[in-house]
Amino acid sequence: MLSFLATTTTANTTGNNDVNDKMATSTVQFLTFPFRRWRKHYTINPPNDTYHVIYLGNVLTIIAKGEECLEKPLSLIWHTYCNRKRAELPMKLTVTRSGLKAETKQQGITEYWSHRITYCLASSNLPRVFCWVYKHEGKKMKPELRCHAALCKKPSDPYRIAQTLEHYLRAALQEYRREKLYRQNTRINALTIGQPFTGPKRKLLLQTGSLNFRPPGGRSKSAPRLFAIDEENEYPEEQQVFDLVWEILFINAFLLTYLDFVTF
Which residues cross the membrane (predicted)? Predict the structure, then answer.
């Protein structure tokens, strides 16, 4: 009997302690709820997608957009690849927010900027082939359209590349237009007020749409190239004045000698 009472008393004590602990925990949670921090993860800049492909080559084309611009060039590229007599050219193709970036061991890194990519497509006739049309600068700065093609490892890779690239191209164009309109409105407001055209530094630093749509000036083909400058010997100012005086005296002496010879 005594053991039963002792067991019952212990069980009641344990139950009361559990209830008190739960009440204390709930009270603490209620009081700290406004100050509680919820951890969330956001991916601001996801990494660029990189694909290991085989570069098939490029061919001139006339039409810039549409599936018609890829029928004959793509068939010619594929026919040449099937009858190839040289080794394949592996390439690492990266889809960036400014276009495409291709890297090979032979040619290094080649960038295809978004404002020059006129069309891209994952061919339905050739499931593993991704192709794009790019406006190059030919001889004498003459623009020429070329169709490029690459062979992917998986049949789903061309569709992913085309979908991601189209999304990035559309976003870069919209951002470029938005920033251009903002700069135009700011310039008009500055002229109306009569103040110089200046904008917030934060706005200027965050303007990335134009950089994604067009290459910066230092990386474009029209940028001035660096070359060696031959430095001339710099003399002090006194030495230059001294040399000038001697030249004047020499000229005067020559003129006097010439006049004496003529009069004689």
Answer: none
Question: In angstroms, how far is the first alpha carbon of the chain from the final one?
Answer: 160
Token representation of residue 48: 């660029």
- Highest mean pLDDT range out of 63-67, 161-165, 194-198, 249-253? 161-165
Provide the CATH topology of domain 49-168. PH-domain like (2.30.29)
pTM: 0.62
What is the 3-state secondary structure of the chain?
Answer: CHHHHHHHHHHHHHHHHHHHHHHHHHHHHHHCCCCCCCCCCCCCCCCCEEEEEEEEEEEEECCCCCCHHHHHHHHHHHHHHHCCCCCCEEEEEEEECCEEEEEECCCEEEEEEHHHEEEEEECCCCCCEEEEEEEEECHHHCEEEEEEEEECCCCCHHHHHHHHHHHHHHHHHHHHHHHHHHHHHHHHHHHHHCCCCCCCHHHHHCCCHHHHHCCCHHHCCCCCCCCCCCCCCCCCHHHHHHHHHHHHHHHHHHHHHHHHHHHC
Mean pLDDT across the chain, nearest whole number? 74
pLDDT of the residue at 83: 87
- From CA 97, how far away is CA 7, in angstroms rounded? 72
Contact in structure between 122 and 130 (CB atoms under 8 Å): yes
Taking the CB of residue 164, how many other CB atoms lie within 10 A of it?
15
Ranking 45-59, 106-120, 147-161, 230-244 by mean pLDDT, the lowest is 230-244
Cβ atoms 88, 67 nearer than 8 A: no
- φ, ψ for residue 53, nearest 5 deg: -125, 175
Q: What is the sign of the dihedral through the CA atoms of 136, 138, 142 and 145?
A: negative
d(C-alpha 215, C-alpha 169), whole Å: 14
